Amino acid sequence: MRFIIGSNDCVFFSYKHYQIGILISLLSLSVIDVVKGSIHEYKNEGFIPRFNSFFVHGGSEGMYASKVHNNGSTEDKPINGKSFVRFESIIFRRPKEVAAKQNEMQQSTGLVEAILVEVKNRDKIGGSYLNSNAICCTPELANDGSCKVGEVIIRQDPDNPGWPKRIQTPFEGKNEEAKMLLQTVEINRTGMYYLYFMFCDPQLKGTTMSGRTVWRNPNGYLPGKMTPLMPFFGFMSLTYLILGLLWFLRFVQHWKDIIQLHYHITMVIGLGMCEMALWYFEYANFNATGSRPIGITLWAVTFSAFKKTFSRLLLLVVSMGFGVVRPTLGGVTLKVLLLGLIYFVASEALELVENLGNINDFSGKARVFLVLPVALLDSCFILWIFSSLSKTLEKLQTRRNMGKLELYRKFTNALAVSVLVSVAWIGYELYFNASDPLSELWQRAWIIQAFWAVLAYVLLVVICILWAPSHNPTRYSYSEVEDIEEDGISLTGGGVKVSGDLIERKPAVITDHVFEVLEEDKRE
After folding, report:
1. Which intervals hold domain GOST seven transmembrane (predicted)?
2. In CA terms, which of 79, 220, 311, 519 is 20 to 30 Å from 271?
């Protein structure tokens, strides 16, 4: 089965305290292939036993209330502005030996129920209000007329009549198959909804189901959690475009003074623009069709992974002073490229699994297995960046180049602030996920993903400002004179060997020469 939300949404029953445990254990038993698409497909799904019931998790999504309402079904009527869950081609199949034992003249010889429930009504499913943890009605519970034997126990919500929603499909006579009628359930209240297919009769053990359900929000097929991200990606595409235009104008204005670092910054801006645009078009297509074409998604994922990798490499080489205090990276070039390659592969794998893979919940083992390498590599980048910054600052202090020193101090401060903000946000993200196990705060979940895109953009803007092309590139570009000056400052009056001859220089002469160069830098 394939369904849309693959994070930590799969929750069903929560009867006070112990019911949450029931819910989590239900989900842990579900083996579901997740593709983030609003068309949830089921292919010969087997029912899993839990307490006195058997279930298949049919999907979960944040749904906004319909903007327009019709009495009855929405079939053959315009769907714009409507929010609904539609059941299409749902077929239940029971084992032959089970069907053969039934009475051919009997109208109903087995019952399967589709239960659609809003998360805040989870206490209305099951027998918690009857002081029982049973999910299906038993003869004892049926004595007072509160439920019917063989059906799931449901208590109606007085504030929302007809909910939780129950749709029953019976097996007739000795038929092996039971076909669910084409039905559309309109969503009239905003919330997180969960769908389960269940039966209570143990004789139906071994039953499987196939078909699909279509989930739609008022403005399209994007799940509620993802809906705000489409305009966000559109907005970020525009911001990258504006930054790119401003950078291009500056680039053209001072094209004679361009250094290699400027080309690297240009590439990051271009990658960011393409990444945001691809995600926007991918979400727009998803919203229009209800499915995610692998081609567009793969391109978006690849651009995202490459941009992340190149951005980190840019921060690293800038921290090392590349093009500013050193003309090349020297012997560390291979190490830098190797770290970048490993990070790209790890990031690409994680992005592919999150967008095209089969992760069932946010803490799934497969996702943890892929998250850990990326987190470890990010830590390596951070340590290497700040270690390199420390050495670069020390080198600039030795050379007494106040212009470049001030530039790198501003860059270090900006980077330190971004790291502190990132750590604080990670703490908030952990708190958010821990305090919302039932995804009741799904309308805010998009902010978690959006934050990292905004932070990366802000840091890129800071780098563009600090290293903007100008008519005076010597203020941050590498100069061989500085290396000569550094060598001269290190002399203590002993002398320097040149072509086999000992040339004596007075320290005062060297010092005067250094101060003359510094005065020239200040005037520039």
Report:
1. 228-473
2. 220
Q: 356-381 burial string, b = 16+ CB within 10 Å, else e?
A: ebebbbeebeebeebbebbeebbeeb
Give the dihedral of Cα atoms 140, 145, 148, 151; nearest 10 deg.
-80
**Pairing of β 2-3 and β 33-34:** parallel
Rounded Cα distance between 417 and 487, Å, is: 35
Give just the sign of the alpha carbon dihedral 301, 302, 308, 309. positive
Q: What is the distance between the alpha carbons of residues 351 and 368, in angstroms, rounded to a whole number?
A: 13
Q: How far apart are CA 110 and CA 130, in angstroms?
A: 25
267 burial level (CB within 10 Å; 0-12, 13-18, 19+): middle
Beta bridge partners of 503: 496
Q: Under a CB-based contact definition with an 8 Å cutoff, are residues 116 and 185 in contact? A: yes
Q: What is the pLDDT of residues 446-465, one digit of tens each?
A: 999 899 999 999 999 999 99
Beta pairing partners, 86: 184, 214
Three-state SS at 13: coil
Contact 362, 7 (CB under 8 A): yes
The angle at the Cα of 213, spanning 212 to 219, to the nearest 5 degrees, equals: 140
CA distance 393 to 201: 74
d(CA 62, CA 439): 9
d(CA 46, CA 209): 7
| Separation CA 469–CA 476 (nearest Å) | 10
**Rounded Cα–Cα distance for residues 54 and 115 (Å):** 12
Q: Which two tokens stand for residue 383?
A: 């340590």
pLDDT digit string, tens, across residues 163-184 = 999 999 999 999 999 999 999 9
The CA-CA-CA angle for residues 136, 137, 140, to 5°, reads 140
What is the C-alpha R_g of the chain? Answer: 32
Quote the CA–CA distance of 358 and 352 in Å, as a whole number.
Answer: 10
**Under a CB-based contact definition with an 8 Å cutoff, are residues 395 and 321 in contact?**
yes
Round to whole Å and give the CA distance between 214 and 221: 9
The answer on pLDDT for 312 being more than 50 is: yes
Q: Which residues contact 175 (CB under 8 A, 6 or more apart)?
A: 99
Decide: 276 and 240 in contact? Cβ < 8 Å.
Answer: yes
> Beta 191-199 vs 53-63: how paired, if at all?
antiparallel
Peptide bond just before 95 cis, omega within 30 deg? no
Burial 507-517 (b: 16+ CB within 10 A, else e): eeebeeebeeb
Residue whose C-alpha is closest to residue 189's, from 118, 124, 125 = 118
- Contacts of residue 248, defined as CB under 8 A and 6 or more positions apart, other chains included, come to none
DSSP state of 47: P
Please name the residues in contact with 255: beta carbons below 8 A apart, sequence gap of 6 or more.
469
Please state the rounded mean pLDDT for residues 410-420: 92
Compute how many other C-beta atoms are within 10 angstroms of the C-beta atom of residue 169. 21
Q: How many CA atoms lie within 13 A of 107 on its CB side?
A: 1
